[in-house]
Amino acid sequence: xxxxxxxxxxxxxxxxxxxTTFSDGTSTPEDLLNYYALHSDMRVFAITDHDTLDGAxxxxxxxxxxxxxxxxxxxxxxxxxxxxxGHVIGLFVxxxxxxxxxxxxTVAAIHAQGGLAVAAHPYTNLMRWNGLVGVGDLIRxxxxxxxxxxxSNFTEVLANGKAERNAGTKARxxxxxxxxxxxxxxxxxxxxxxxxxxxxRALQERTTAAGGRCYGAWTLCKFALTRLRTGGSxxxxxxxFRREAPGGGLELKVHEESSLEAAVLTPAGRIDRATMPxxxxxxxxxxxxxxxxxxxxxxxxxxDSTGVTAxxxxxxxxxxxxxxxxxxxxxxxxxxxxxAARLTKVFPRTHTxxxxxxxxxxxxxxxxxxxxxxx
Length: 375
Fold this sequence. Notes:
Blueprint: E1 11-18, H1 29-39, E2 44-47, H2 54-65, H3 67-70, E3 74-83, E4 86-91, H4 103-112, E5 116-119, E6 146-151, H5 157-166, E7 171-175, E8 187-192, H6 196-205, E9 209-212, H7 217-230, E10 240-244, E11 250-256, E12 262-271, H8 276-288, E13 292-296, E14 300-303, H9 305-321, E15 325-328, H10 332-340, E16 349-350, H11 353-361
Parallel strand pairs: 1-2, 2-3, 5-6, 6-7, 12-13, 12-14, 13-15, 15-16
Antiparallel strand pairs: 1-8, 3-4, 4-5, 8-9, 10-11, 11-12
């Protein structure tokens, strides 16, 4: 943790933009909690994984299991949503906001559930090739509650200044955008009070202040060396995120195509009554955002009739929206269940994920048009 100036009397600090292994971060939610407990004077932080709330929920459950260690830390549930116009952070949200909508619609979806919307790194421009995208001048016209005017990434030195100049009367926030532990707390948001409720009030009343500095070459080198030693990727995989059933049993891996017009979903584990809701929600919400879907069933170890309901819901939502939907690489367990349900010839399907991705990218509608590729 970088040395920071003392916190002013009556104020606290928050880091409102942190990533975990549920998207493109290198640290698990448990790693973050352990690090904050021993290294940080921050009382509030938000886990804002790309396009998933589940990293934040996972961290909250772990903190609740060990109150003697983490009771002084308040975790805000957040999500960094990949809108078609750039990244938008939703804070104080409880319901998943799918990627693929416009920035204005994304902000509206956040506000509809009582959340606050932050424009993340709005003027970033050095790593667009790797999916780091801001909303730019839309901070002037879309009703964001706050603008991230300090982001600790080494790419944001000039972009931070531009965000500050163009934020107008909106609240200012500073965040680490931490994808690895040494970045945590490099930039921060100061607010009067001590709690998440105090922070929310400060954002609404525009009494927050952005502080901290971008990390430099030495911090980046330490991160790269650590990743090389542990065998991890140095570049963030910004198009991948995952969701999990709260009780376990199913992990849903999602890869968004760079155009945001399609996604590949890979359920790993059991699709049954306990795990079906998270798959159903993901499929129907992506359809509502008009994102075409390939459902890779190669890693599904079990599928029952309740689980099939999630596939039916996604298929119907895709047909309603007129977008592509295709099952691919069915495991033997899935094939048997669909055959018993007399649905094998109803769902569009292909032998391979590659073929399904090609069809979805070509805009094949959610009809039985893919049947000829099925066995």
